[in-house]
């Protein structure tokens, strides 16, 4: 699209509370807890010879690596926009969070599956000092609960700020740090329970197969969490649209303007945490002069940023709603029913 055919209004968006500080606290707390727990689990695993405990030790090491990657994501994503990245570095948070998901799978899940399969199909092993494993698992559960509570607190606060349920926030959040720590800590608590069951059944029956089964279950659990996080971050990195409530709010705001006859097309994309790009094709009142049209575009862009603080960039393009090619493109993207309901009038 030629530059002179498009009306663009940028600038700084409205002030809003920053969640960067709390995200950093959540990640640092989780990383410190995971590092301590990894050492405890490794010692217990070496003493007891439990495959489940060794799997949990590697699980905690993978979680610690994840926190380092998330801290990198927070730091890089805060860099200001420049000539080579005019929309900023917000998507760097999604890239590093995607690497964190890969880390959980590559190191934690694969090792746990290997240890579990080797234990189940290998020679039976004697269990030594199971009490040590019980103590370490109990301490680890208590420490992990502190990190999980902080992650849950942040996710709930973010959900309240967005007017969403906890489940909706986990699905639509554009901040992968808090949700990654929440899923990771939830998996850690579940993994501890599985390890406890494996060690306990091995202790009661004298059969190390239970220990191996627990390790396999931990590996599958981590693979599932890695898949969920990978899918979510991949969608954000590719370019996911904004949450439906924001999309509908922008559409309704533009449609309500007296100078607007119809919102022909509306596209949004998350370009970072709390940062949304809005591109709208609008059929304006034909009686507007060029100067009036420019002032209307500037005013509408400012109003959108004021009403929706997550909106950071607004591009408004005047178009006739009767254009057949444009209408066909919109219908091809959304389908006849969806396009009629959302953008095309």
UniProtKB/TrEMBL annotation:
Disordered: annotated span: 1-21
Lineage of the organism: Bacteria, Bacillati, Actinomycetota, Actinomycetes, Pseudonocardiales
Swiss-Prot/TrEMBL keywords: Membrane, Transmembrane, Transmembrane helix, Transport
The keyword Transmembrane appears for this protein: yes
UniProt cross-references to Pfam families, sorted A to Z: Cation_efflux (PF01545)
Bilayer-spanning residue ranges: 25-51, 94-111, 131-149, 187-206, 212-230
Name of this protein: Cation diffusion facilitator family transporter
Bias (Basic and acidic residues): 1-16
Membrane topology (UniProt): Multi-pass membrane protein
InterPro entries: Cation_efflux (IPR002524), Cation_efflux_CTD_sf (IPR036837), Cation_efflux_TM (IPR058533), Cation_efflux_TMD_sf (IPR027469), SLC30A9 (IPR040177)
Annotated compartments: Membrane
Source species: Actinokineospora diospyrosa
Span of domain Cation efflux protein transmembrane: 28-237
